[in-house]
Design goal:
Elements lengths: L1 H14 L5 H14 L2 H8 L8 H18 L6 H26 L4 H29 L3 H28 L8 H6 L5 E5 L9 E5 L2 E7 L4 E5 L13 E5 L2 E5 L6 E3 L5 E3 L10 E5 L2 E5 L1
Antiparallel strand pairs: 1-10, 2-3, 3-4, 5-6, 6-7, 7-8, 9-10
Helix pairs in contact: 1-6, 3-5, 4-5, 4-7, 5-6, 6-7
Bound molecules: FE2/S2 (inorganic) cluster (FES).
The site of FE2/S2 (inorganic) cluster has 12 residues, from loops.
């Protein structure tokens, strides 16, 4: 257990290693050139309302684990070779969705993410070599290369788990604030204290909220952006496809004010929106 804990601490140190910033910048620029905004949003999983990358990686890893099992069963060479190929086919969209997420992450996440990508690239290369060897009838070499590939992919998956569960890539960063909101109607502010057409920050209990007073309606949303907890009240309110939206100042996620729907990624989950009522010129909100 101590070994795993010290491994996690080492990964924390990698996240602080600023020497990685130069290669990160080079790769990020290449990814941004290769992926247009709509393609990035599709790869993030905006259409799914859920991060796409973890689901896609399951295809490749599942197929490769299956091939490793079949490698132990005599007479299953053809089936094992097929699964190696399925894993490689599944790895293609998984790689691109990973790069899309990585290119819009925090600097610390990008540093460790670069290692994650490098290790997974090694795993993919080993599996490609394994497939070639198997197709040429060199089953023993194919099995050995597959075993090495599985070892690399397992290490890469460990790094990916660290990125998701310790560093928070792909998590819903607005949800903790939403859960801390007190129950029932809560006073936000006097209506006259809210400027027209300008997002402002207020608090309900200890939970910061974005408040926007439009011409006909007041909107109240959780302040911390779903993507990586950026401060939405510092963002710009804009009209997109005839809908009033707020743009996160950190990575540009754009949310419809009336229901928090994501109009542009990298966020994939809606921003939590509170119900609002006005009582005696006082704005109140609740979950
Ligand atoms: S924190 Fe990344 S888009 Fe808001």
């Amino acid at each position: 257990m101590e070994l795993l804990a010290s491994g996690a601490r080492r990964l924390d140190a990698v996240e602080q290693d600023e020497r990685l910033d130069r290669p990160v910048g080079v790769v990020r620029a290449a990814v941004n050139r290769a992926l247009s905004r709509p393609v990035k949003d599709a790869l993030h999983g905006r259409w799914l309302g859920h991060p796409l990358h973890p689901a896609l990686t399951d295809v490749a890893v599942g197929a490769w684990v299956g091939s490793a099992v079949l490698d132990r069963i005599p007479g299953q060479e053809r089936a094992a070779t097929t699964l190696v190929g399925v894993g490689l086919a599944g790895a293609v969209p998984a790689v691109w969705s990973g790069f899309a997420d990585w290119s819009e992450a925090d600097p610390e996440q990008e540093r460790l993410g670069l290692w994650h990508a490098a290790v997974q690239a090694a795993g993919n290369a080993l599996y490609l070599a394994s497939l070639v060897a198997r197709l040429r009838g060199r089953q023993r070499a194919g099995r050995a290369l597959g075993a090495a590939g599985l070892a690399a992919v397992t290490v890469g998956a460990y790094l990916g788990g660290h990125l998701a569960y310790r560093s928070g890539v792909g998590m819903n960063h607005a949800d903790p604030a939403w859960r801390r909101l007190p129950r029932g109607w809560q006073v936000v502010d006097e209506l006259t204290n809210l400027p027209q057409g300008k997002p402002v920050r207020r608090a309900i209990g200890d939970v910061p909220v974005l408040v926007y007073r439009g011409p006909r309606q007041v909107h109240v949303l959780v302040e911390e952006c779903v993507h990586l907890a950026g401060p939405l009240s510092d963002g710009e309110v804009t009209v997109r496809d005839d809908e009033v939206c707020v743009v996160c100042p950190w990575h540009g996620s754009t949310y419809r004010l009336r229901d928090g729907a994501v109009r542009r990624g990298p966020a994939v989950m809606p921003q939590p929106v509170l119900k609002v009522r006005i009582v005696n010129d006082r704005v109140e909100a609740r979950r």
